[in-house]
């Protein structure tokens, strides 16, 4: 009598399956599937047009749901097809695992435990954290992962330590509703970014990883990194000009000024100097002469310095239309002082009657705007630092 797989009852209770996209991994595929069958029979394999003996190997696994592509379409296409097929089969979640043997089946317990403990009113997407700093991890993988982690933080505001692991848990109803355009390795980035934009809690969970020295990988460094870079460039534009402003505006409108200030700033657990720095950064960027790029700059710098992006963005809106003429005028006058021309209280058309005068005036304005931005930011940091320091002390002594 066959013994029931170790986690079969948990997989069934959660309506969860394991999705394995595979392409030319004949050396490891069989053992990977045999190991996974010890834990559950809810397996779905997408053979992405393999040209080795993959199809022959899969014939020995009659208990597994298998789908074959006639030609190689890319990991992204295999995953998209697998997600739809899994939901059609009645599953609500899918754990993806690579077929190259680098992942450990016993780590399934970590994904299942988090899924069992999640709240009913929110969705989660889990990404395995391979601890890329440990010995034995290829240097190229570590560098690429750090690059992806940083830009994921910039475009979503969520900090992950591993954004490229293929060992993941996906909520199928969410994923299958997202319009996905990529079809290679970058699809895994596209999904987690767009899921985070939909308020899905994207989180890392610790996993083990085994890197065999001569393991088969189909990741092509130049082309795949190029596609990932282009994808992040697009995400930066969308997030800075739509997603971040939309989310900030919705949060601010929902709470109102007083509640927003109280909950997002006063009661924030950040130290006083970081709260003040977020405000100072927002004002600094808002005064700079990069009109149309303030949102891009403030979110990038806030992510770089690990400051509150929402607060920084709100204060960068100092350059709203009613204040723009005053900011430009003050910047121009500050520049006049810095280049030794003295204050010119009146701006007359005859002051700009040549190309040289126009360029000099523009240079004067640019220099002045940086000086004004720096002075305003420093003064505001000092004021709000003391304000938040006093507020934090009152919160500590409050019974």
Task: Tag the structure with descriptive keywords.
2 domains; Spore Coat Polysaccharide Biosynthesis Protein SpsA, Chain A; 9% strand; 399 residues; 14 helices; DUF2062; Glycosyltransferase; Glyco_trans_2-like; membrane; alpha/beta
Question: In short, what is this structure?
Answer:
This protein is of the alpha/beta class and 399 residues long. The protein is built from 14 helices and seven strands.
CATH class of the largest domain: Alpha Beta
What is the strand content? Answer: 5-15%
- Examine the coordinates and then state which fold CATH places here, giving the name of the CATH topology of the largest domain: Spore Coat Polysaccharide Biosynthesis Protein SpsA, Chain A
What distance lies between the first and last C-alpha atoms, to the nearest angstrom? 64 Å
Instruction: Give the total of beta strands.
Output: 7
CATH architecture term of the largest domain: Alpha-Beta Complex
Largest sheet composition: 7 strands, mixed
Bulk shape:
elongated
Separate helix tally: 14
Radius of gyration: 27 Å
Organism: Salegentibacter salarius
Domain Glycosyltransferase 2-like: 17-175
GO molecular function, one term: transferase activity
Protein name: Glycosyltransferase
